[in-house]
């Protein structure tokens, strides 16, 4: 029997194995839509129930300092390319087709690739494949929102592998997308796979979820953009349930132990939602440069590799995901991409690694050439290109800039200014407005 098993290993496709002979990990990157740090119970939130995500945190690593961009498309572009928006962001709703994504790179390594959820990165029919995804189940790909009511939740208008599919029998969009993810796991359980799961929950419009007495299977979608904020809590809980279903599917197919699962959010919680974090209210700040708009959950679970624990000091931003995934899979990042990200894989292995001293953000919803907000920060202090300097631990809403810095704060400000200066000439002259 031992000889038979050894022979079987020799027959495995090369992309399944690292150079050392160990199987390459499967990867599932889950990104909730409009979910700030304060919404997760494991982070200290108390307004909602997130037991499945909490379990991932309890048996994995929870980061306390992960920062996205303030809005969906800018975050997606930075996440997928490993490059700060100052270098490659063109306009809302699309990604420049000259960019290389983590899916492009992993696909070349033999990974089966999938994206399911909200796209919002270009309306060309081939956009998902162009950016490296073999299969896709998406909302807001080529058809946008539709006319009138929103089309992402009840009776959704989706596109599966580029083909329009309209649901009319009371289906819930997040369920359809989740089922696509789970089927992809089953179909690719015998080879390495990468799933990017940019969820459409709990983004507004805030609507009832299946099982709620208010759920209307005949709904044509919310007639208003925001919907009713009183449903936000059940949308968060339903989102958590979707995460649990994916984890259960990994276990059913026997691939949980070799799957790296990452959970995060694309930006802060939307207004007018107010949530409790460690006993204090946090108003949603989507679109704002403050913590309420940019601080997001980051939970990583990788059985046998990532130890249990909390990373309370190290900084992570969305440019860091691409190099981390590539290092975890033995994928080389071409030097000509000139990415800005730094791998946090060592921290996932319980090692010190090379933590960032600062993170950077250049933000404009519709592209350049001039930012709406530009800043660098460490865990405590934040410096804007305008010169505003804040102590976030004392002024989380950034209402009172520091006007009389201490000698130590002057030193920190100088270090952050040097970081800002690195990007002074990064944006090409004449970039589209």
Structural summary, described in words:
The chain is built from 12 helices and 17 strands. The strands form 3 sheets. Strands 1, 2, 3, 4, 5, 6, 7, 8, 11, 12 and 13 form an 11-stranded mixed sheet that branches. A 4-stranded antiparallel sheet has the order 14-15-16-17, covered by helices on one side. A two-stranded antiparallel sheet has the order 9-10. The protein has 433 residues and is of the alpha/beta class.
Summary tags:
11-stranded mixed β-sheet, 4-stranded antiparallel β-sheet, globular, disordered N terminus
CATH level 1 name = Alpha Beta
Averaged pLDDT: 93
Shape: globular
How large is the count of helical segments?
12
Beta-strand content estimate: 15-25%
The count of strands amounts to: 17
Q: What count of domains describes the coordinates?
A: 1
Helix content: 25-40%
Give the H and E element order.
HEHEHHHEHEEEHEHEEEHEEEHHEEEEH
**Spans with pLDDT under 50 lasting ≥5 residues?**
1-15
| CA distance, first residue to last residue | 66 Å
CATH superfamily: Alkaline Phosphatase, subunit A
SS content category = alpha/beta
Task: Give the helices and strands, then pairings.
Blueprint: H1 2-10, E1 26-32, H2 51-58, E2 61-67, H3 72-81, H4 85-88, H5 102-108, E3 112-118, H6 127-130, E4 135-139, E5 157-160, E6 163-166, H7 173-187, E7 193-198, H8 232-252, E8 259-265, E9 274-277, E10 280-283, H9 291-294, E11 295-301, E12 309-311, E13 316-317, H10 321-329, H11 345-348, E14 359-363, E15 373-377, E16 381-384, E17 389-391, H12 407-421
Parallel strand pairs: 1-7, 1-8, 2-12, 2-13, 3-4, 3-7
Antiparallel strand pairs: 2-11, 4-5, 5-6, 8-11, 9-10, 14-15, 15-16, 16-17
Helix pairs in contact: 7-8
